[in-house]
Specification:
Helix content is 65%, strand content 0%. With 74 residues, the protein is mainly α.
């Protein structure tokens, strides 16, 4: 198995997991609060499963970006 095959598999798996984790996150206020709409609880502490999903999103985004960059450079 070559390095390119491993990077392809890593990209595919991380992309699928990233989309899944993003879809599992709770909906926010969207762009409405940016244009003067009611922000609701714009500033609140994230806890529990929501915090885990945010951390997983960041980690998976870095893995996806890193594998994509490595794929392009190699």
């Amino acid at each position: 198995m070559s390095v390119m095959s491993v990077l392809d598999i890593l990209q595919l798996v991380s992309a699928i997991l990233l989309v899944t984790v993003i879809l599992l996150q709770q909906r926010g206020t969207g762009l409405g609060s940016a244009f003067g709409g009611d922000g609701g609880n714009a500033y609140r502490t994230i806890r529990g499963l929501e915090k885990t999903l945010v951390v997983a999103t960041v980690v998976l985004a870095f893995v996806f970006f890193g594998s994509t960059l490595a794929h392009v450079l190699l």
